[in-house]
Write a structure and sequence with these properties.
- The protein is an alpha+beta fold and about 525 residues long.
- It folds into 5 domains: about 1-135, PAS domain (Beta-Lactamase), CATH 3.30.450.20; about 170-215; about 220-305, Beta-Lactamase (2-Layer Sandwich); about 310-380, Signal transduction histidine kinase, dimerisation/phosphotransfer (DHp) domain (Helix Hairpins); about 385-535, Heat Shock Protein 90 (2-Layer Sandwich).
- Helices cover about 50% and strands about 20% of the residues.
- It has 15 helices and 17 strands.
- A 5-stranded antiparallel sheet has the order 2-1-5-4-3, sandwiched between helices. A 5-stranded antiparallel sheet has the order 7-6-10-9-8, with helices on both faces.
- A hairpin with a 5-residue loop joins strand 6 and strand 7.
- Helix 10 runs antiparallel to helix 11 (about 350-380), helix 11 (about 350-380) runs parallel beside helix 15 and helix 12 packs parallel to helix 13.
- The protein is rod-shaped.
- The termini are far apart.
- The model is unreliable at about 1-10 and about 35-45 (pLDDT under 50).
């Protein structure tokens, strides 16, 4: 049989099973022998009947077989040459394994010397061992499965018990109580946690610093990837383009300006670029700078500098220079022409006085322009003396009106002063210039039989100077520009009245110098109202 073959090939296992069988048979046989010696042949028959698988043989010291439950004792050979019998005679016990011709099977023998000197030999065949083993296979399988279940449950319980303290470890606690075996591991975790915490804190601090810096920058800042995708944009950049959630979008989605996209392309090719960009009334100087990482182009930095004020100041300077040249050239040309005529005797004697009056008028105009230019230059350079005094505003207004009454009468214009009488602390000369220019304009651009009304009002934070006329008015498209230098809504009328185009600019600067502002409203042929707010 297969099991018998396995048993024969495994000596250690054969010995174990042999010893187990022998011990079992020994107990049974001893009981049987007790019964045999006590009862006789009847007991012998019972022993033979009871021991079906086990073979019991009793051998004398001379080797003769006197009992065997499988064969007739008198027909059996002398056993004195059997190794297990020899060992039993000499040492008291012996064992062996060999092929039995009687049983025609491999048999395991165990011999023991009895007190009467005879040798008790027990034998068990391989088939019997296999059959006994097969009997125990279901029990062994059940025992194995039961052992597995018990082992699984025990392992699960033990694992849970071992893992529970590990799962309950609070890595945020300053001190961690756990197994001694885990202490080095926990200490290393704490060390790494501290290092990671310090590194994260450093990164957060750096990120917060960068956010604070870029967030408070007036300049717009955009960082892009190598493909033009926006990685970062500060609030100033968002305000410039008015596009929410700029990060993640491509620069193409933010602006379609051809020049901007062209310069962006140049930057992403690895070259610096610069341009002036105007959007929604604001002008920016844009700098495009490529970003390299390990000599590989990794993106671009785009910086927007607001140069609106500088740009328009430069534009105004250019316009101012052109306007000054034009305004000065006209009276100078007239003066030069008339002077040349007088010098060369071309003018008649009776025309000399008229020429002299014209020269005087053009000279006054020239002086007026120069004076106004000097005043504006002082405002621009903040060189106006900050001399403030306390004076009565209504009294000052009354003085200005008195000085302009003759001019108003010549144009058939009525001057009126209303409002409260109160004192303010301001630069009296500048307020005088403001009132003079406003009332003078009201006279110059009025209609025959018209009026100019000056109304004064004292407020909590500001005092109000309101000058209204019933003149020709100003077209709506000119209102936003009337405070520009040398700007005239009606150039032909301005030249006739001797206006320089600087009066309202001086009014605006005077109001701003006193932390105030100027508002104007007008309709053509219905008159104009200018309101100046001066900090009280």
């Amino acid at each position: 049989m297969r099991i018998a073959g396995l048993l024969e090939g495994e000596q250690l296992r054969n010995r174990i099973f042999g010893y187990m069988c022998i011990n079992i048979l020994l107990t049974v046989t001893l009981l049987a022998l007790f019964a045999f010696y006590a009862i006789g042949s009847r007991a012998e028959e019972q022993v033979k009947t009871g021991l079906k698988n086990e073979r019991v043989t009793i051998v004398t010291q001379t080797g003769d077989v006197i009992f065997d439950n499988y064969a007739k004792a008198e027909e059996m050979d002398n056993h004195l040459n059997r190794s297990e019998v020899i060992d039993a005679i000499n040492t008291g016990r012996g064992e062996s394994k060999r092929f039995s011709e009687t049983m025609s099977q491999t048999t395991y023998y165990y011999a023991m010397k009895l007190e009467d000197g005879n040798i008790l030999r027990l034998s068990y065949t391989a088939d019997h061992i296999s059959s006994e083993v097969q009997k125990f296979i279901p029990q062994l399988i059940f025992a194995a499965l039961a052992s597995l279940v018990v082992a699984f449950l025990a392992a699960a319980s033990l694992t849970k018990k071992i893992i529970k303290p590990i799962n309950n470890i609070d890595l945020t606690a300053p001190e961690i109580d756990t197994y001694d075996e885990l202490s080095p591991f926990v200490r290393e975790i704490n060390r790494q946690k501290q290092l990671v915490g310090e590194y994260v804190a450093s990164l957060e601090k750096r990120a917060n610093t960068m956010n604070d810096i870029t967030g408070n920058m007036k300049e717009g800042l955009i960082l892009t990837g190598p493909g033009g995708e926006i990685i970062f944009a500060n609030q100033s950049a968002v305000k410039i383009f008015r596009v929410n959630e700029m990060p993640g979008k491509n620069i193409l989605e933010v602006s379609r300006d051809v020049e901007l996209l062209h310069n962006m392309k140049i930057c992403l090719s690895g070259k610096n670029a610069e341009m002036v960009f105007t959007i929604r009334g604001k002008t920016y100087n844009i700098f495009f700078n490529p970003v390299y990482e390990n000599e590989i182009l990794n993106g671009a930095v785009v910086l927007f500098l607001d140069i609106t004020e500088k740009f328009y100041s430069e534009k105004q300077r250019k316009e101012f220079s052109a306007n000054v040249s034009h305004e000065l050239k006209t009276p100078l040309t007239t003066i030069y022409g008339l002077t040349e005529m007088l010098i060369n005797g071309i003018a008649k004697k009776e025309d000399t006085k008229d020429f002299a009056q014209k020269i005087s008028a053009q000279t006054k105009r020239l002086i007026s322009i120069v004076d106004d230019i000097i005043k504006l230059s002082e405002f621009d350079e903040d060189s106006v003396k900050a001399e403030k005094s306390v004076f009565n505003l209504k009294n000052l207004a009354q003085t200005v009106i008195e000085n302009l009454k003759s001019k108003a009468a010549g144009k058939n214009v009525t001057l009126n002063l209303t409002g409260e009488s109160f004192e303010i602390t301001a630069n009296e000369h500048m307020i005088d210039e403001m009132l003079f220019n406003l009332i003078d304009n009201g006279i110059n651009y009025n209609t025959d039989g018209g009026s100019v009304n000056v109304d004064l009002k004292q407020g909590k934070d500001f005092c109000e100077i309101r000058v209204s006329d019933t003149g020709i008015g100003i077209a709506e498209e000119h209102l936003s520009r009337v405070f520009e230098r040398f700007y005239r809504a009606d150039k032909s009328r301005s030249k006739k009245t001797g206006g320089t185009g600087l009066g309202l600019s001086i009014v605006k600067h005077a109001a701003e110098y006193h932390k105030g502002r100027v508002e104007i409203s007008s309709r053509e042929k219905e008159g104009t109202t200018v309101v100046c707010y001066i900090a009280a």
